[in-house]
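Take a look at the protein record below and tell me what you see:
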Amino acid sequence: MTFLSSVFAGTAEGGRPSASVRLRILIAIRWVAVIGQALTILIGHFLLGLDLPLGLALTVVGASVLVNFGLSGRARARLTDRDAALFLGYDLLQLGLLLFLTGGLENPFSILMIAPIAVAGMILSRRSIIALSLLGIAQISGLALFHLPLPWNGAPPALPATYMFGLWIALVLSMSFIAAYVWIVVDEARRMRDAVAETQLALAREQQISAVGALAAAAAHELGSPLGTIAVIAKELARELPPDSPHAEDAALLVSQSERCARILAALSHHPGSVGGSGAPPPSLPISALAEAAGLPHHLDGIHVIYATTSNDDTSAEPLVPHTPEIMHGLGNLIQNAIQFARQEVTVSIHWDDWTILVDIGDDGPGFPPQLLGRVGQPYISGRDVSSRGGASGKGGTPHMGLGIFIAQSLLERTGARLEFGNLEEGGAQVVVEWDRAAIESGRNRQGKDKSG
């Protein structure tokens, strides 16, 4: 991943990263290629005694050396997808010309035609990879028919046409498979990297909200004492002023406004977003209150959200769960997703016993598509069918990317939760979040120290 991050940045068509390829990386790869080509030609000619067209072959290699020197002054520049494709296209043509001079596909080094395609699979867009692959296949086809003979010591062996055809097939299939495989693997790595970055940003936003709540609570606490003094003096002034005093109305207004400020500060002091002061552990709330607080910001007109609590043992007290950004954002995202796709109703069932805590979120919408059910929770997939209210979207409204559920799952798993996705028999989607009660109440599974927070 470090190499891939240093090679490319930005995006090309289709969202494929490739629009900012580092030129110095491609120059370094070409230096390795030309040194290897020069050594192979010299060893073959002088040590193995092969009668190679030394002048022409070294001229072709020297052309690449000159091009590299010419580009060295721009080594820190970044290439667009098109420029990088032209760069690698030149390498393909140069290698093809060398093979033409040294036996075509009969040359065992013809396998190196795959190398530029493999590099392209790492850094270019799908369209550019297809174009370079077609160029490589065309060159392989041309070299199978037209090339200078490979110089042998003695009479050259007569290779059967069937063998040459098989070699051609092998090179074409290898080039196509490697290009596709490398592109898929690198693209998946990029998607996962971006999804993890989105998760970290979501957690950072939630932590900032919590920090604002903590600041508000601290400010409310500090302002409480002077406000109490102002309220006492205002009441004394109101009592001492005669009813017909021109200042009586002002004093009464001062009393009412000081009482209003006291109510506002009291609300700030008990705001659910407050997570305590700096370095203080997060407060714990009943799991039912925590679930309702997580779903409250996502209310949607026309959708009825029902919160229900059950326990296997009536004597078992309701568990207290830490009010953390991970739990609030994770549960909120799942409830938001259910509300978005519900037709009329969303049910959030909270169940606990002495060992586990379950939050079961179900809706009466279309449910998860059966063909995607096994992939729900992976980044960048559309986890739900398009509903009457629009397409699937994650937190923040990004359509058809599947990041919302991935972020929710990643954050909740940081707290030790296990998630299961399914469809209800009567229709609609179901997400079950399960914690080990002892672990979550003691906070052993919380990994709250996020690097980005």
In short: Strands lie at 21-22, 78-79, 284-286, 304-311, 320-322, 345-352, 356-363, 418-423, 429-436. The two ends are 23 Å apart (CA to CA). The longest helix spans residues 161-240.
